[in-house]
Amino acid sequence: MLFKSLPPGRQYFVSGVPGSFHSRLFPKASLHFVYSAYALQWLSRVPQELSDINSPAYNRGRIFYSNSPNEVGKAYTAQYAMDMERFLAARAKEMVPGGLMALLIPGRPDGTLPAESSIGPIFQPLESCLVDMANEWS
């Protein structure tokens, strides 16, 4: 349906490619323009420290890091840095010299708490609902 919605009468070179944007998806030097909107905030995996009961970043029963210890935020930050490095390295191989990349990534100003972000109020009730659902099945 996505490709059918492209306006007719123009020449397009588009594709739907299975895989993760955290790794290479396209042939070397094949992309002239890369665009990503509201995708790069998704991590490739949950940081290991969050599920290690002996870690100061242990985040049992939480899907968001608001009101969590600083170690939780640091674990997410470290994972994000690794993921962005992988993303940019993969795109660097896929893009032609002089190619363009446009990224739209949600963020928050330095010094603000996660709960003060625009998505903080969304994740808090979502987390509560998911925990309740998980408890019903356990």
From TrEMBL:
<dbReference type="Pfam" id="PF03492">
    <property type="entry name" value="Methyltransf_7"/>
</dbReference>
<dbReference type="GO" id="GO:0032259">
    <property type="term" value="P:methylation"/>
</dbReference>
<keyword id="KW-0489">Methyltransferase</keyword>
<protein>
    <submittedName>
        <fullName>S-adenosyl-L-methionine-dependent methyltransferases superfamily protein, putative</fullName>
    </submittedName>
</protein>
<dbReference type="InterPro" id="IPR005299">
    <property type="entry name" value="MeTrfase_7"/>
</dbReference>
<keyword id="KW-0808">Transferase</keyword>
<dbReference type="GO" id="GO:0008757">
    <property type="term" value="F:S-adenosylmethionine-dependent methyltransferase activity"/>
</dbReference>
<dbReference type="InterPro" id="IPR029063">
    <property type="entry name" value="SAM-dependent_MTases_sf"/>
</dbReference>
